[in-house]
Design a protein that fits this description.
Helix content of chain A: 25-40%
Number of strands of chain A: 9
Largest sheet of chain B: none
Structural class of chain B: mainly alpha
Shape of chain B: globular
Strand order of the largest sheet of chain A: 5-6-7-3-8-9
CATH topology of chain B: MetI-like fold
Largest sheet of chain A: 6 strands, mixed
Strand content of chain B: under 5%
CATH architecture of the domain at 1-66 and 190-252 in chain A: 3-Layer(aba) Sandwich
Structural class of chain A: alpha/beta
CATH topology of the domain at 1-66 and 190-252 in chain A: Rossmann fold
CATH class of chain B: Mainly Alpha
Number of domains of chain B: 1
CATH architecture of chain B: Orthogonal Bundle
CATH class of the domain at 1-66 and 190-252 in chain A: Alpha Beta
Shape of chain A: globular
Oligomer: heterodimer
CATH superfamily of the domain at 1-66 and 190-252 in chain A: P-loop containing nucleotide triphosphate hydrolases
Order of helices and strands of chain B: HHHHHHHHHH
Strand content of chain A: 25-35%
Number of helices of chain B: 10
């Protein structure tokens, strides 16, 4: 199947400590089409970040398999067309904004696409801050740099772990709108981890609602709302229908 | 306005503190330590001490002495840095060695100077400054090792995840992130170590055999001669040299690692 985006098959990850074995992710199956936006929604400790880390090759499953576009995490890395952004923006404080965005090129060993880097800075509204250092920026601006960096390699796959989780609601809302715009231009298969219900519904094509300990997927909700989605959409009954459905699943 | 006040306040406080010390020093010297015949006792007034400092500064013998001590201090300091950095490389490659590195630092800090110095003197030829070098090294080693280990921990898990997600291996992480992230902690250890090295080298001269010059030696001969003003002048000069070492590295740090003051964005969290 060439059109498969994310595929999780019987994915299980358990952590063993002296206190015993904890199942962080238990027997998770999931499939999304290529180019779709998937959110893993759930309370903290439900294993959603673990799934993302496995997909990004930062963790290995105890059993089962995780692929994106039919590629294992290791193969995906070799393609050099993935992007990541975490809640901890993980900007390097000694590098300027522009050099932080160039960082993925350097690590992946790919020549820096300077024109694209400056275009990216424009896309996230930071062209005049190219030479600024991270500590000179606000929290929202730092996350914008982190998003620009995630898009540096023109990724066909994007992993986002609560990228705006540490921000205030208003900034978060605004950045979600920007993220949608950027995502629509890139057409990347995206997996986002979040505990924000509205955020998940607003951005996603699919919302996988998870339950904690052991982390399993309760249901995958397909969000059939037209794009580009606007702030006005968030007050429509259709939007609320999806939010209510997700809420119900989370609390029952 | 407010920023100027907040920048000025610490400087004023520092100046005020210095003034209080000088006034108390003067009072103690005049009322508690002046002999019945009017000559200075064990605590001479500050002005006399500073006059002597000025006189010492134009005396080449003093320069040579302080230079010799500083040379031994620098040698010990550099060896301590080399050892700490070598340990840092080992810990980078084999993280389990971290406990061993810490222990080595603790041992260096706990070695009784009074016991180890005569042994070093016995082992070295007469006229050697080895004991000064060793004491400087011992004084610096612990803060240096701790600085190196703190520096290696300064990288956040997120920064390492970033490198690995983009296909970078351990070496890339070390080269692009871990070494640079370690610089602030390293520099602050170097800063603390500089005065400690000079003090260690000076102390070493109290044990050295056949060594006639150096800040510590000058102190000893002045003690025998009862030259209190001279001893205070040496104390002031030694403090100045130590402060100079600290200051030079602090300046270098501002230039080399300007992000240190803003570590909340990634450095040491």
């Amino acid at each position: 199947m060439t059109d498969t985006g994310v595929q999780l098959s019987a994915l299980t990850r358990s952590f063993t400590s002296r206190a015993g074995t904890v199942q962080a992710v238990s027997d998770v199956d999931l499939q999304t089409p290529k180019g779709s936006f998937l959110s893993l929604l759930g309370p903290s400790g439900c294993g959603k970040s673990t799934i993302l880390r496995i997909l990004a090759g930062l963790d290995t499953p105890t059993s089962g398999e995780a692929t994106v576009h039919g590629l294992s995490p290791a193969e995906l890395r070799k393609e050099k067309s993935l992007g990541v952004a975490f809640q901890d923006h993980a900007l390097l404080p000694w590098r300027s904004v522009e050099k932080n965005v160039r960082f993925p090129f350097e690590v992946a060993g790919v020549p820096v696409d300077k024109a694209w880097v400056s275009e990216l800075l424009g896309l996230v509204g930071l062209e005049s801050f190219a030479d600024a250092k991270p500590w000179q920026l606000s929290g929202g601006m730092r996350q914008r740099v982190s998003i620009a960096r995630a898009l540096a390699l023109r990724p066909s796959v994007l992993f986002l772990d609560e990228p705006f989780g540490a921000l205030d609601d208003m900034t978060r809302q605004r950045l979600n709108l920007e993220l949608q715009r950027l995502w629509m231009e890139q057409e990347a298969t995206t997996v986002m981890v979040t505990h924000g219900i509205q955020e998940a519904v607003f951005l996603s094509d699919y919302v996988a609602v998870m339950s904690p300990r052991p982390g399993t997927i309760k249901e995958v909700i397909e969000i059939d709302l037209p794009r580009p989605r606007t702030i006005d959409l968030m007050s429509t009954p259709e939007f609320h229908h999806y939010v209510d459905r997700a809420t119900q699943l989370l609390f029952h | 306005m407010q920023t100027r006040r907040s920048a000025l306040a610490p400087a004023l406080l520092g100046l005020g503190g210095l003034l209080v010390i000088l006034v108390v020093w003067q009072l103690v010297a005049v009322f508690a330590f002046t002999r019945p015949n009017g000559s200075y006792g064990a605590v001479p007034p500050p002005l006399a001490a500073f006059e002597r400092v000025a006189a010492d500064l134009v005396d080449p013998a003093y320069w040579a002495g302080i230079g010799a001590t500083a040379g031994a201090a620098l040698t010990g300091y550099l060896i301590a840095i080399a050892v700490a950095l070598a340990l840092g490389v080992l810990v980078l490659l084999l993280p389990r060695l971290e406990a061993f590195a810490t222990q080595l630092g603790v041992v260096a800090a706990c070695v009784p100077v009074a016991a180890i110095s005569p042994i070093v003197v016995l082992l070295s030829p007469p006229g050697s400054r080895a004991v000064s070098v060793v004491l400087a090294l011992l004084a610096v080693e612990f803060p240096m090792i701790i600085g190196v280990l703190l520096g290696l921990r300064a990288t956040t898990p997120g920064q390492l995840d970033l490198v690995h997600a983009y296909g970078g291996g351990t070496l890339t992480a070390i080269r692009k992130v871990r070494i640079i992230a370690a610089i602030p902690a390293l520099l602050s250890a170097l800063k603390i170590g500089a005065p400690a090295a000079f003090l260690g080298a000076m102390t070493g001269e109290f044990f050295a055999v056949g060594v006639d010059s150096g800040a510590g030696r000058l102190l000893i001969s002045q003690q025998y001669a009862g030259d209190f003003v001279g001893m205070w002048a040496i104390a002031i000069l030694a403090t100045a040299v130590s402060a100079l070492g600290y200051g030079v590295i602090a300046l270098a740090a501002r230039w080399l690692a300007p992000w240190t003051a803003h570590s909340s964005t990634g450095g040491l969290r």
